[in-house]
UniProtKB/TrEMBL annotation:
Keywords: Metal-binding, Zinc, Zinc-finger. The keyword Metal-binding applies. GO terms for molecular function: zinc ion binding. It comes from the Eukaryota. Residues 14-58 form the GRF-type domain. This is GRF-type domain-containing protein. It holds the Pfam family Zn_ribbon_GRF.
């Protein structure tokens, strides 16, 4: 008699006709599900004593049917578990791929923002240099003009020219400070733009 079975270690010892400790199993068939039995360790060999006997009495049909249904449900749960494990593994692969894509996009965004920051910095420096050159030109112009007026015109005109020269020096200093503040604001604005772009890209990917 053959049965689908599983071995069990929690059983009393039973010696077979070969003098060996008989193996202990639990049947899993529909008719005898959960019923324990003994079998000779050499049962499949020609020298076996042929021991194969039930340890438990025959159970009522409704009990064996209940055990069979439970075993069937357990198998279904195991199949579902394996399927879910496979799904999780596939999702992990997909998440890893999306993470790599996001990192690549972030690197590209950082590169673009860095280029924009450098460009804004260069423009600020050029503007600053241009205004300084203009201020220097007009300062030199008024200096020459004031010298000519001092020679050719009355003293009050010379004083006016000197005041204009001082005013141009102050204006040049104010322009220099304004350009520096403007360049700093451009840098801060580009840094905020880089942070907002990064957050937007992360939200888009997720």
């Amino acid at each position: 008699m053959s049965e689908n079975s599983a071995s069990s270690g929690s059983s009393r010892l039973c010696l077979c006709g070969c003098g060996l400790t008989a193996n202990h199993f639990v049947a899993k068939t529909q008719l005898n599900g959960g019923r324990r039995f003994y079998k000779c360790p050499r049962f499949d060999e020609a020298s076996s004593c042929g021991l194969w006997e039930w340890r438990d009495e025959e159970m009522p049909p409704h009990v064996t049917m209940l055990i069979h249904n439970l075993n069937t449900s357990l198998k279904s749960v195991e199949v579902e578990r394996n399927y879910l494990k496979k799904m999780v593994a596939n999702l992990e692969v997909g998440v890893s791929a999306e993470r790599l894509k996001m990192e690549k996009i972030m690197e590209e965004v950082e590169g673009i923002n860095s280029a924009k920051l450098q460009k804004a910095s260069r423009l600020g420096q050029l503007l600053h240099q241009s205004l300084l050159e203009q201020a220097f030109f007009w300062s030199e112009y008024f200096e020459c003009w004031s010298a000519e007026l001092a020679f050719e015109c009355p003293d009050w005109i010379a004083d006016l020219a000197a005041e204009c020269h001082d005013w141009m020096d102050e204006l040049a200093a104010e322009w220099s400070d304004w350009i520096a503040d403007f360049a700093a604001e451009c840098h801060d604005w580009m840094a905020e733009l880089a942070a907002e772009s990064s957050d937007w890209i992360v939200g888009l990917v997720l």
